Amino acid sequence: MRLCEWGDAPVRGxxxxxxxxxxxxxxxxxxxxxxxxxxxxxxxxxxxxxxxHAGPGEVSALSAAGPAVGALIAVPLGPWMEFRRKxxxxxTMDLARxxxxxxxxxxxxxGLLSFAQLLIVSTVTAAAEITFKAAxxxxxxxxxxxxxxxxxxxxxxxxxxTSTTVGPPLGGAAMGLLGPVVTVIxxxxxxxxxxxxxxxxxxxxxxxxxxxxxxxxxxELVDGWRYLLGHRQLRLLLANSALTGGLLLAAEPPxxxxxxxxxxxxxxxxxxxxxxxxxxxxxxxxxxxPLTRRFGRHRVxxxxxxxxxxxxxxxxxxxxxxxxxxxxxxxxFGLILCIGVFMPLLATYRLEQLPPxxxxxxxxxxxxxxxxxxxxxxxxxxxxxxxxxxxxxxxVAGILMLATPLLLPRREHPAPAEPExxxxxG
Length: 426
Description:
The chain has 426 residues and is mostly helical.
């Protein structure tokens, strides 16, 4: 059953199709939290460096330990949310992130801020984000017809890169003018506003595809991984996605230390160097659908996924001053342009391949795998940076990235027939 049959008034955004009022509010919640995250880009590592005077090992630990423990906490949440309505789960995760982030400005004002608290905040936000993403993916599939998923995912990707373009420079400037925790306050507030937007969707929600089984068995905990690993194309894409994200983010803490600590860049310059190239993500997300229509989805995914691996190794050659900023901007633009093309296609293909009663568990397993890989590689990157130099760590991660296209599937599995969307009865 189409969205318009649910009584939703149509709304229009980027693209050429109406996706309904409920998607409009879901997209609004996403945009609000995305802009909050953009403003708070790198806030915890920057606070660790500038307020607590943390070194490369501690910054890498902050970037690795929190997401790793958060991923572990999120393991039982995938099966738990599969048999529940997804909108209340998303609202709860937003409110949890608001509450835990709000503790940072409070303890900073009282002179009680500690590295341990940053680790706890990183852990809770990581677990909440994993759960939110899995629930939102399942909810999106329940309200948007399959043929429109690429439009919806392109809009999400476009919002991500627009917020990342605008947010970090403004966040860096705000941090310089108003203090180190101001962007954390903005980020926390965005989650509160996101929860209110989700509440404004109103009405009912499709019932879960199946009734919840009695008790929580081990098989339920690993069911998402079982499906992903049993699907050859998704298995390869998961491996590619996890290693690509892990290697990219393993180089981020050493790059922060290199730029802010060794090369003397100000926080606003760091934010600007990573914000302006994000226009490439906006361009890529807009190109994703027309390129697919012309060349076919699999060819575009394979090309964009391969090209994105070629850029990060150049970050090892970053120097001081304007030339260094220009080099970062060029490399990041090329990388993010390819990511912007690739990600909406990956998100759409993944939702198409997942049956309705496996979406939340599989998406949760996907994100947990990514976060665990990111945490592991980030921790290894921190050790390597401590034993050698941040620049060496960035170079090693970039060289390893060149091998990730080998994990892209060479054939595309056709999408299964779309099941009928379940109308709400509540």
